[in-house]
Design goal:
It is a single chain. By secondary structure, the protein is an alpha+beta fold. It folds into two domains: about 15-90, Orthogonal Bundle (DNA polymerase, domain 1), CATH 1.10.150; about 105-215, Cytidine Deaminase, domain 2, CATH 3.40.140. The chain has helices at about 15-20, 30-35, 45-60, 65-70, 75-90, 105-115, 145-160, 180-195; strands spanning about 120-125, 135-140, 165-170, 200-205, 210-215. Strand 1 and strand 2 form a beta hairpin.
Length: about 220
């Protein structure tokens, strides 16, 4: 039995089934690319191709072109043009909603620090596939890491979250992780894999600075 507890965890599913069950916003960037690409080739799986496309997207964004895409082994000119057409449509029909995603550590911590007067021992933020905030939850003193992660996992499943950020406030100048931080981060990484999350971060922060105990976990 895993140390997360007895909660029933969502099974691993392919992007198509995951989208049908949870909606497209629950998919990671790589999973969305997999839906468009469809299948792999003899030497590269669709997941491998999609991860490489996702890395290029982080560099070029929606302005990526078919020439850049065609440099990815296994993609080829036809699929490169297909992906480029998707991005061109996205540029022609931008979203009417001006939501800003929590794309940086700074914006994540700003969202938490805005909750002035709270006595939270730990914050957990769930984000969708576009890294937009879904829910912000606070937790008091932690008696049991397994108990904490059971509660957290319920929220993740309820929110159909793709990314999760753990953040613990510390006194100014005390940006050194404690054993509890390391233990939670280790178990959170396991939880992320079990739930098929895109990324997990664990931060400690004071009024002006922060320290990343665990950086992005990429599946």
């Amino acid at each position: 039995m895993n140390r997360v507890g007895k909660i029933k965890l969502a099974p691993f599913v392919r992007p198509r089934e995951k989208a049908a069950r949870m909606g497209l916003t629950a998919l990671t960037d790589s999973e969305l690319v997999q839906l468009v690409v469809g299948s792999g080739v003899s030497n590269f799986t669709v997941a491998q191709i999609a991860r490489r496309v996702s890395r290029l997207l982080k560099t070029y964004g929606a302005e990526i072109n078919s020439f850049q895409l065609s440099s990815i082994p296994g993609l080829g000119p036809a699929r490169s043009a297909q992906l480029s057409a998707v991005f061109e449509l996205a540029r022609r029909f931008p979203s009417k909603h001006k939501e800003s995603g929590l794309l940086t550590v700074v914006s994540v911590l700003d969202a938490i620090r805005s909750q002035a007067g709270t006595t939270a021992h730990l914050w957990v933020l769930t984000l969708d596939g576009a890294r937009r905030l879904i829910e912000r939850r606070s937790y008091g003193e932690i008696d049991s890491i397994a108990g904490l992660l059971r509660e957290v996992s319920v929220g993740i499943v309820k929110d159909n979250a793709t990314h999760v950020v753990f953040a613990r406030p510390v006194p100014n100048g005390a940006l050194l992780p404690e054993m509890e931080d390391l233990s939670i981060a280790k178990e959170a990484k396991q939880l992320g894999r079990l739930l098929g999350l895109g990324t997990i971060q664990y931060l400690i922060y004071d009024e002006t600075n922060h320290y990343a105990v665990m950086k992005d976990l990429v599946q």
